# Entry
Amino acid sequence: MLQVLVNRKAHVADGICSFELRLANGELLPAFTAGAHVDVHLPSGVVRQYSLCNPPEERHRYLIGVLKDPLSRGGSQAMHERVEQGQALQISEPRNLFPLAAHGQRHLLIAGGIGITPMLAMAHELERQGADFELHYCFRSRDRAAFLDSLENASFAPRVTLHDDSSAEPSKLDASALLQRPEPGRHIYVCGPGGFMDYILTTAAAAGWPEDQVHREFFAAAPIDHDGDQAFEVELARSGKVFQIPADRSVFEVLDDAGIEIETSCEQGICGSCITRVLSGTPDHRDQFMTDSEHARNDQFTPCCSRAKTPRLVLDL
Ligand code: FES
# Structure
């Protein structure tokens, strides 16, 4: 855990604030790679993940952008209303679940709204590497688009295409044209609201882009339908212990109560922190982190939200 200070809080677009975080003692922060996020532990106990958007070679600060979600469950609203400049915050060290493909030859970054935050760090890093990339930024209107100034003034500005839904000249992203056909060595990165992600991911899949060339990071989980949820059992292979998972509780909650440690972060199936190996039984996957082919293998699942299609799952715990 890191104790940081909010060195600067700024309003960067309608409903979006940026927070510049520094170590209180002025020392260097742990290094991070493009696409990484930190968990911010709010004083209320709520934990939220925010992507780092400054250039990864910077060690004196972390920069995050937070969209105030009208349906906030206590995270973004508290960040906007209760976290002020000069305040201390506890954050995790950076973790990267959305890294750039190490062997990618060309990179296509597609951001929707607040999904620009990890893409900014990626663009800075790709520029530093001299890599071949382009960034498409889709937003409803300029006043709701964060970090436009940074993008328009960046050295990589010629690689950026803005898609402003409100512009008189339609500049809407045409994903079918952009993703027309898969290209060897070219990697796509997508981040933004659920509907936007679906549009891009469905278009890429329909055009035949291989899953391993399409990288995504969700900000919020799609609603899960809990009607029909049933109780089931999990067995821990190493101890042989068996736990009953009631219809209204997650595997993580039950195991956590029993003192069994599983690393979690989002607890809603979007970050992948809790992925656990499944040795037998069939999971009922509810996460958005794993790909379709990973789901089909049924050899791992996310205990924070996923359930079971069989009466018992045996876990590698
Ligand atoms: S904790 Fe994020 S997917 Fe389970």
About this structure: The domain at 2-91 is CATH 2.40.30.10 (Elongation Factor Tu (Ef-tu); domain 3).
